[in-house]
Amino acid sequence: MISKKKIGKIITLAGLSFASICSNAQTTAKPLQNLQVSPNKHYFQTQDGKPFFWLGDTGWLTFGKLSREEMNTYFQDRKAKGYNVIQVMVLHNITAKNVYGDAALIDSDLSKPLTTPGNNFNNPAEYDFWDHVDYALDVAQKNGIYLGMVPVWGTNISSKDSKVTKAQVEKYAKFLAERFKNRTNVIWLNGGDTYGDKFTDIWNTIGSTLKTNNPKQLVTFHPFGRTDSSENYHNTSWLDFNMFQSGHRRYDQDTLPNSFKEDNYKFVLRDFALKPTKPTLDGEPSYEGIPHGLHDTLQPKWKDQDLRRYAYWSVFAGGAGFTYGNNAVMQMYHKGEKKGAYGNKAIWRDELNAPGAAQMQYLKKLILKHNYFSRVPDPSIVANQGEKYDYLIATRGTNYALVYTYNGKTMSLNMGKIKGAKVNAAWFNPRNGVEKAIGEFKNAGVLQFDPPGEKVDGNDWVLVLTSKK
Asked: Which residue ranges does UniProt annotate as crossing the membrane (predicted)?
């Protein structure tokens, strides 16, 4: 049903040009620079050539569940913690409404976005669902944040009851492309937790329509758990970079054949070697505060240490960034709501300060401290690599190397992989970002480095080696 305030105000696409439905909202913040794939094709940069390390958060239900005031709170908090990308659903479902009761579509038809003339919030007859999205983009821009927007969540297409057609998604994608064509802080995440090998005509239509109409806006595909966009869309012209969902199951919970299980770095190493070369990143790891395996709420919950492990493993393998997630924040759970998904009882505002949420910025700062575009994964540095939680992973540039251990395991390293006869060494603490020098070493042979503390899961460290000047 369309709310009474919309009666007499409905404007359909059939009756107006796309130009007339674009929001006339004005933003006082300086537009962010468009993002680009870097010349080496593995990473991102701003249009002036500066490194852009993707540090994302999953705020999936932002458009539907947050008020204007809450959006300001959320984006300001994430800016303070170093995030520069928020991943959101434009439409969680085709019956979507926002917190003010504004429906996104007419009769749940993707080809008929429900828009009204004007965008005055104080006049309910003017302000609509799409104006609220514009407001979110304005607030994000003021906070230096890009929005990775999923046009329509995958279950709306894959459900056995779905009546969504290719013709509808093409009109819808054209609407999105026209509405947001002047936005420099939009990234498109096609798909939405869905299998890439199903309904490919739909996903290719959305992807190609968005990319053709707005070539400066980056486009990728957000896939189902333990799958990767590269498996189905790597060679498409519309896919600018790869995204995988490393998933929420433990090693012993995953019985899928040929699965990488918790070893998310394997997605990156595989994608890093693909041709044509494209950036890749983990767009959905195990969320902090969500049960192992998702559905059994009696299972232990993933902790900040697990998010750090996924972050450092994937980035050191050559990832162009990392997306953090929190169970309460991703669903924007409010006090007094019905039972939260995946056993969540925490309030989203409270979980903004979950331990892992603040720790991700230290990885970003560490990576950007060193020469960004020369960085490559280099497994040959580690002589005692190990498996599962014992796995040691290394990345390097021309004059630095970084080696990560999740549990404080002693490192045996093949030296001589970076410049110089000698190197300075330091231990970097992923929990607080503190780096402590430990001395000068010869850059030859095999050397051992023993991290502080006992060998136990979560006692993670990064060994930082830099060429001595």
From this structure: none
